[in-house]
Amino acid sequence: MTSPHRTPDWLLERIALGELPPDELAAARDRLSREPDGPARLAALEADSRATLEALPPDRVAREVKARFARADSPAAPHAEASPSRPSWRFLPALVPVLAAATLVVLVRPGASSQEQEARDPWSATGTGGTPGVLEPTRSKGLQPRLDVHRQVGTRTEHLTDGAPAQAGDVVQLSYTAAGHAQGVILSVDGRGTVTSHQPALGDTSASLERSGTHLLPRAYELDDAPGFERFFLITSDTPFELEGVMAAARVLAASPEARTAPLTLPTGLGQTSFLLEKPSP
Amino acid sequence: MSVDVEAYYRRYGPQVLRRCRFLLREEEQAVDAMHDVFVQLLRYQAALKDAGPSSLLHQIATRVCLNRLRGAKRRPEDRDDELVLKIAASGDTEARTAARGLLDRLFGRVPASSRDIAVLHLVDGMTLEETAREVGLSVSGVRKRLRALSAVLQELEAA
């Protein structure tokens, strides 16, 4: 007696892994056993699994995965290939000074051995001198422009990773590292298609950036209840540039289905990096 | 929950690699995509629900591969391949609110996208009911998503 249809590959995988409800698993195994090539397919799959684990040992794969994961969170990561996750939110207009105030404590760490480490975890630094808001006094050679987002959690702050979940009411603070570039724009695109320029907040041309160090934007924000995602972009250049082209590119992206992951289409000479926050959807 | 990559790979890696091979048809790309699937798992580990890892990884792999195939110029090798390529290359015709990412649904926030549903149903051979269960939608919801790719389907029927 044969089964009227062949067990599909996806079900064969579940059978091999035993990841089905018990009654379904039993039925699927029984059906597979009655298919002419069922047992052989299962055996072949299990043999292939063994071969894969031999050819690509778990420790080696784990190292590579962790390295990629770390790179995705590094300043040099091309965030244009951000995850296929989603976000959308808007800044409430209300200025939320508490987070910024908390960070305006001097964060310069003279003599730090790893400037890049400071850039990655700027709020962990402590000190008693320096310029308010400057988290890193000099840049490392080769350091790439980056955006960082921090969230206030109770009385402490949390450094978020690209793609981190967020929700309405979260208070977030942005910081940037220009890595030598003199001009830039920081804007956001959300799931509602709203494009907001955060720096400069006004004007027609790019803002002057601090070329070295990591710098906080002058204000923190409370996320509103816009659903989906919020994606921040840092666009950098060595020379001033008009905002309109960048904002137009952002509006085009915001209206596209790829707003969460695709890069902005920008003129030659402008660099970009992005940071994604994900929010619940209705 | 925290993800032990090595343990997850040991149990699910071969399945993920087979999925990537099936969709990408190229070993090197498949291995590369397989790594990225686990990167995605790590990225969302904080929100990960400890339920159905096999289903989860199957769909993450589907999404990662579809994204890679989008815009690919290679020639289809068989009908399934042609279908996958067409689905991957198709624009998601639904509004963004309906085109949520796979990971969003997997982590309990939003439904899977139409492209994933189309692959599960049309390529993997899942029934509407199985597809609906897989992506956490109603059967009617799955039908609705599939209609969003009707242009692709019509093209296939005409072929």
Shape label of chain A: elongated
- Tally the structural domains of chain B: 2
Distance between the termini of chain A: 49 Å
- Characterize the main sheet of chain A: 6 strands, mixed
Number of strands of chain B: 0
Mean pLDDT of chain B: 76
**CATH classification, class level of the largest domain in chain B:** Mainly Alpha
N→C terminal distance of chain B: 47 Å
| Residue fraction in strands of chain B | under 5%
How many helices of chain A? The count is: 7
What percent of residues of chain B adopt helix (DSSP H or I)? 55-70%
Family (chain B): Belongs to the sigma-70 factor family. ECF subfamily.
Domain RNA polymerase sigma factor 70 region 4 type (chain B): 102-147
Domain RNA polymerase sigma-70 region (chain B): 9-75
GO molecular function, one term (chain B): sigma factor activity
Plain-language structure description:
Chain A is 28% helix and 24% strand. By secondary structure, chain A is an alpha+beta fold. Among the domains of chain A are: 9-58, no CATH class; 146-279, Immunoglobulin-like, CATH 2.60.40. In chain A, the strands form two sheets. In chain A, strands 4, 6, 7, 8, 10 and 11 form a six-stranded mixed sheet that branches. Chain A has a five-stranded antiparallel sheet with strand order 1-9-5-2-3. The longest helix of chain A is centred in the first third of the chain and has 18 residues, at 38-55. Chain A is elongated. Chain B contains nine helices and no strands. The chains are: A alpha+beta (282), B mainly alpha (159). Chains A and B meet through helix 1, helix 3 and helix 4 of A and helix 1, helix 2, helix 3 and helix 5 of B.
